[in-house]
Amino acid sequence: MPIALKERRYLLLLAAVIVCYVTVSYLILPATWSRIEHEPGLSKRTMLTATAQGIPGGPINVGLIGTHEDLIGAFHAASWYPADPITLRTSVEIIGSVLLDRPYKSAPVSPLFFEGRQEDLAFEKPDGISADRRQHVRLWSVLAKGSDTRPVWLGAVTFDSGVTLSRDTGQVTHRIAPDIDRERGQLIGGLNNAHMVTAIYQMKGIGPTLNGRNGEGDPYYTDGEIWVAKLVRRGDKADKIAMTEPAPALIQIKDAVFSWSSPGH
Known about the structure:
The protein has helices at residues 3-33, 68-77, 88-100, 180-193, 249-261, and strands at residues 48-50, 56-59, 62-65, 81-82, 113-114, 117-118, 121-126, 134-143, 152-165, 172-176, 197-204, 209-213, 219-222, 225-231. The protein is α+β, with helices and mostly antiparallel strands. The protein has 2 domains: 1-33; 45-261, no CATH class.
């Protein structure tokens, strides 16, 4: 075979390899990872809360879009209760609820901080009679006007599986269940089933975490995604259950692998 022909074939092969590399690395893979940035103003935030002492708390794992009134109406429709502030009276009442197994549907939650601010709102949903077992969420207003002109809120939702004493203050506090992704799904799913949601999508959170610890040292694990729900306006109801916008292909694979390898599998 003539040398010129061999060189031509080698050059064509090299060109084909370069074209394949560029196509895969710069077009296909970025497309499978890339997300639609529904709220670009959130992309640079560190999605982790902290205690009053600055100890890392739990991650941000939910987002809501709506006014303060929209949130109040949506949580009421889904049978969640606004948490009382921490006072001497409410502290005594939550202790009595736990010890005497009596109802306290709006028991206070301990404060957490996100970007230096204590939560703006907190809601809870009892699991049983007393206040020792409950779902609860803390919410922070992070954008006064999002892409659909309404405020955007970020939150941290967990399940309180029992009570203990805070290692920092000695106050009565709760232990959390480790599978915080389950509580994320319960919250967004509950609002959706109450016809309070018009759209659901994912955004990047802290990333996959198998051995996380909150401010009290309780373990948690998460795929690191934030589920965002766009709420109906107060007084309205969605005509149907909202469908979740599919995540990019590689993120779906990542979530599936994490779910399979997580301690709760």
